[in-house]
Structure formats: structure tokens, C-alpha cells
Sequence to fold (199 residues):
Amino acid sequence: MAFELPNLPYAYDALAPHIDAKTMKIHHEKHHAAYVSKVNTAIKGTDMDGQSIEDLCKKHSDNAAVRNNGGGHYNHTLFWSIMSPNGGGEPSGALARAMNTAFGSFDGFRTTFSNAAATRFGSGWAWLCKKADGAVEVCSTANQDNPLMPETGCGGSPLLGLDVWEHAYYLNYQNRRPDYIEAFFNVINWDEVAKKFEE
Ligand code: MN
Fold:
């Protein structure tokens, strides 16, 4: 059972001007597609074939090809899903309460998450995760690692992830990663993040 590149739930230009159409198209059609193709090659003919992408991340991150490309597929699939042209604003309900407990306020979360994204050296991701006890936390991982991978020490189920690889922003923002991080807050689909929190 090979993995497939999922369609975006919106058009390539839908997140502009925060994320431009050319970046979205290359990111999805080239970068994400390459992770899908390479993880399929890595698992073909092995006992990993047929496992969910989550299980590959949780149980097989000792395999470099699975870690990099399976991580890439999982991370990008989540990333597309938690953005929307109708995004932005703040969460409500149980997610908002958990975030207030962890960070004091939405602004507290915003500062913590933005710092995690800005200070990730080189390529990687910033995450908001739900831990086993229901609390939320922010962490960051290198490359295409993610919090499902036990070695990352970044525990829990990812609710929200931000790609801070240069391929995610360089065409529009060049070296201005902080501007890209700020713009991301305009497209976060908090309804989708809340749905993941309640799962
Ligand atoms: Mn990417």
C-alpha cells in the first residue's frame, strides 16, 4: 500500500499574501511529492509496507530513509491541514483553556511558539503538541523529525506544526524567517487544531 500525495484543501494561491502561490505549488508538488515517493521506496518489500504513517514515525525512526521521508510526508500532510484562507484569530473552548494553562494567554503561546520557530537552527519544524496528560506544549525538531519520533524528546501528538525549512518561505521572505512566522498566524486553522486536540 503506497502512500499518495494528498490534495491541498484549498488552491495554491489561497493563502496569499501570507504564503505565495509559487511557494505553495513547489512545496506541495515537488518537495512533499518527493517525500512520498522516497518513503514508498524505503518501505517497499519490507514489513513496514502497510503500516500507517504515524506508526512508521513512532516505531521506525531508526531507519534514516523512513525517518526523513516518512517524517516529511507526515509533517507536510499535517501542515496543509492546519492552514486555511479563513484562518487566523484565536482558538476557543478546551484547546484555548489548555493553552492558557500552559502559556498564560494566547499571546504567551504566540511568543513561545514563534521563538521555537525562529531559533530552530537550520531546517526543521516548530510544534504545538498534546501530551498524554492532556496538557499542551511547544517544542521544535530538526530536519523532518516530529514529536511522534521517540528520539526527539518532544513528546505528544502534534496539533500544529510550522515548517521553517527555507523552501517553505525563501521565495517570498528570503532570510526574513520572523516575518514568515508572523504571517503564518494569519492562516492557522484553529478549528482543525481544536479537532486534533479533542481526538
Ligand atoms: Mn517543507
Remarks:
- The mean pLDDT is 97.
- Residues 93-198 form a domain with the minor pseudopilin epsh fold fold (CATH 3.55.40.20).
- Residues 27, 31, 76, 163, 165, 167-168 surround manganese (II) ion (CB under 6 Å).
